């Protein structure tokens, strides 16, 4: 999935916004799906503006506020978003965890165990946060389904982390893994 389609969908669903406003929405509401830095968002909306997918207006700068760039989706942006939704097959996102595990294992079992423990703690925090979002969810069906899917993935990964840690701890005690 590309950042541009999340930005287009946000502008379509919620109307015009600034780069900072898009960043806050991603951070506060959609980080379970996609993470992007403010710089990545600014770069992407600038490129989308050059491509004609978004329009950019400069705010009036009232009350000592900076002259903000306010972005809105264009007809071309709407068409691009709808084409992507219609034509792009559902696929899982690229996960770097397997490659990271292989690299960590080269540093020894302690490094590997620490990486999995850290991942488990991270996923536990994400699950708590996502459960809180779901319990206050007044969003449309697509957003609710996306949150539910991500929560299920997180829980599955947490289960895997527990099993992996048990396997590693068994290996440390001289027990051979059956994986």
Characterization of this structure:
Strands 1-3-2 form a 3-stranded antiparallel β-sheet. The chain has helices at residues 3-14, 19-29, 38-50, 75-87, 97-106, 109-135, 141-172; strands at residues 17-18, 54-58, 69-73. 66% of the residues lie in helices and 7% in strands. The chain is mainly α and 179 residues long.
Quick take:
With 179 residues, the protein is mainly alpha-helical.
Look at the helices and sheets and give the structural class.
Answer: mainly alpha
**Rg result:** 21 Å
- What's the N-to-C terminus distance? 31 Å
Strand portion: 5-15%
**Total of helices:** 7
The geometry reads as: elongated
Instruction: Please state how the strands of the largest beta sheet are arranged side by side.
Output: 1-3-2
Question: Can you tag this structure with a few keywords?
Answer:
three-stranded antiparallel beta sheet, disordered C terminus, elongated, mainly alpha, 179 residues
Give the SSE layout.
Blueprint (H helix, E strand, L loop, with lengths): L2 H12 L2 E2 H11 L8 H13 L3 E5 L10 E5 L1 H13 L9 H10 L2 H27 L5 H32 L7
Antiparallel strand pairs: 1-3, 2-3
Helix pairs in contact: 1-4, 2-3, 5-6, 6-7
């Amino acid at each position: 999935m590309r950042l541009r389609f999340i930005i287009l969908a946000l502008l379509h669903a919620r109307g015009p916004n600034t780069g900072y406003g898009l960043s806050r929405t991603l951070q506060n509401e959609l980080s379970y799906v996609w993470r992007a830095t403010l710089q990545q968002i600014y770069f992407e909306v600038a490129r989308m503006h050059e491509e004609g997918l978004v329009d950019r207006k400069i705010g009036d700068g009232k009350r000592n506020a900076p002259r903000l760039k306010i972005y809105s989706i264009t007809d071309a942006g709407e068409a691009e978003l709808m084409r992507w939704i219609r034509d792009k097959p559902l696929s899982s996102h690229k996960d770097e965890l397997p490659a990271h595990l292989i690299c960590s294992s080269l540093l020894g079992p302690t490094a590997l165990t620490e990486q999995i423990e850290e991942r488990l703690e991270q996923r536990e925090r994400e699950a708590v946060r996502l459960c809180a979002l779901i319990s206050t969810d007044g969003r449309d069906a697509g957003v609710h389904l996306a949150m539910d899917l991500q929560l299920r993935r997180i829980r599955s990964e947490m289960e895997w982390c527990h099993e992996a840690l048990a396997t590693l701890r068994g290996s440390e005690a001289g027990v051979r893994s059956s994986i």
